[in-house]
Amino acid sequence: MSGFFFPQAFLTGSIQNYARAETIAVDKIAFDYIFKDDLQHTDIKEKPVCGVLCYGMYLEGCRWNYDTHMLDESLPKKLFVDLPLIWLKPVEERAIPESGIYKCPVYKVLSRTGTLSTTGHSTNFVMWMEVPSDKIQQIWIKAGIAAFLSLRY
């Protein structure tokens, strides 16, 4: 996803494709975030049934634990780590989980700032992503945890 100039359009397009294929109103669809930490992007031989597979994102200030399949404290001297392959699966009338996740902001670059575009949205913010966690969100919020598409400023 980091290769796109405007990743929000890519995400919107994938939701629109699903809505058209299933004849569902686009505003009733949301992504389910399925972390495929048992696969590498090079292992993928065919496209998913619906949605998109994304890789190339980074986490700052924590890590993905491949044993527990959720967020965990950083290892010493590791500020940035790769996120595993993620299946952004469109789902109709999806209920947002109230626990067991961290609502992680995803930005294009590390600065976390951007100018407001004509739509009123930041040019740097991409989306909120639900990342599995066994800790309350406030712990990750205080730690400043975020995901990035690029490690440049």
Could you explain how this protein is built, in words?
The chain is α+β, with helices and mostly antiparallel strands and 153 residues long. It has one domain: Hypothetical upf0131 protein ytfp, CATH 3.10.490.20. It is 15% helix and 33% strand. The chain is built from two helices and ten strands; from the N terminus they run H-E-E-E-E-E-E-E-E-E-H-E. The strands form three sheets. A five-stranded mixed sheet has the order 6-3-10-8-9, with no helix packed on it. Strand 4 and strand 5 (70-73) form a beta hairpin. The longest helix is centred in the first third of the chain and has 16 residues, at 7-22. It starts with 6 loop residues before the first helix and ends in a 5-residue tail after the last strand. The mean pLDDT is 89.
Short recap of the structure:
15% of the residues lie in helices and 33% in strands. By secondary structure, it is α+β, with helices and mostly antiparallel strands.
How large, in whole angstroms, is the Cα Rg?
A: 16 Å
Number of helices: 2
Give the strand content.
25-35%
Report the span from N to C terminus.
Answer: 17 Å
- Write down the overall geometry: globular
Number of strands: 10
Please tell me the total number of domains.
1
Give the ordered list of helices and strands.
HEEEEEEEEEHE
Topology, element by element:
Elements: H1 7-22, E1 29-36, E2 52-54, E3 58-60, E4 62-65, E5 70-73, E6 80-82, E7 85-92, E8 101-107, E9 125-132, H2 137-143, E10 146-148
Parallel strand pairs: 8-10
Antiparallel strand pairs: 1-7, 2-7, 3-6, 3-10, 4-5, 8-9
